[in-house]
Amino acid sequence: MINFRSYNPTKIIFGKDTYKEIGGILGEYGKKKVLMVYGGRSLKANGVYDQVVHSLEASGILFFELGGVKPNPRLSLVYEGIEIAKREQIDMVLAVGGGSVIDTAKAIAAGYYYEGDVWELYITEAQPEKVLDVGVILTIPAAGSESSDGSVITNEETRMKCSCCTDLFFPKFAVLDPQLCYTLPDSQISAGGADILAHVMERYFVPDDHHDFSDRMCEAAMVSLIENLPKVLKNKQDYEAWCEVMWIGNIAHNGLLGRGKRDDWGSHNIEHQLSAYYDIAHGAGLAIIFPAWMKYVWKEKPEMMEQYALRVWKVCPEGKTREEVILEGISRTEEFYHSIGLKTRLSEVGIDDRDFEKMAEKAVFMGPLGNFKKLYKEDVMEIYRLAL
Ligand code: NZQ
Ligand code: ZN
Question: Which of 127, 283, 264, 119 is nearest to 192 (CA)?
Fold first, then answer.
């Protein structure tokens, strides 16, 4: 196990009706004036908006609004949010939504104090020195941004999707009420599930040795997700199954599962360019990229891929070579994606090879990707080709 520091300050407030207490929670943090950030129609359609506003008003919290965050959140809306935050001198950004909303809130929180263009934080080594506090009400288990140190924003002009990571981006608190997931469309449930699985796999397929406890935590997360995700797709009001999915989604990306080893993130960076070019849902893109990445890199550390096949997918090794076991593990992964309604090929979602080179260049513009196998531009292009 390699040396590590472990830090995650986000308070998780989990369970039925917890989001209705948001006014009181903000009061506990001494907040009086917030910018509430949210997405498109879902929040008003499912009544969550009204409940949140009611709680804020009842607690005397003054709030301003920035709605309209789109999936693969745009930089232009971040600028708008920074302007409102500065003008109104707010003391917290409250994100009510999924990863796109939370990442927008984090970018606004950084832009509030940053003197240059906030986009610099996403494309250079520059780091924010101070950010506004961020609080979260999560409405979809997926990105894990509710207790991660990252924010991912798309610059729609340059067609680049980039991330900024800093300890300052950990939200102060995240409210997780599994009932809020009942209104999610199937496509978002599946994409969210694929993202959660990917967050575990990025921390599972690592080049280092000696991480048995961590491996077993990752395997537990994967096995439980694989069992519970189909349950919520079958019955959207299965509260207990949603509890499992929401909790796994949080643990998958709060840093815990990656301690003591160098996680990978190659597939994520390769996928982000797909989202930037084709506006595909992040999780849907990962279901296409991850199997291709596995096929490309498994020979780097076959024992890890074999362990995955045996322990997560319970592949029967009898009469099979190691390679056969591994390839069966990969195809079981693809079958799982299919079973929850996801595609596993670029051609199935109407993407051809015309932008491979440009996307690969952007994916590696800060240097080679990944740790399991270092990936350069040519490797990334090969993975896109394998995914075709
Ligand atoms: O916009 P509305 O109408 O609210 O609809 C949203 C949106 O269309 C809908 N939705 C959310 N909650 C709902 C709901 N619909 C009905 N009922 C509900 N309760 O879901 C759609 C997708 O929302 P989005 O926020 O984009 O989803 P997700 O949480 O998957 O976030 C994806 C973004 O997070 C980034 C991704 O790259 C992507 O941009 N990531 C952020 C990370 C981080 N900050 O740590 C890490 C991740 O790996 C990821 O890269
Ligand atoms: Zn992700």
Answer: 283
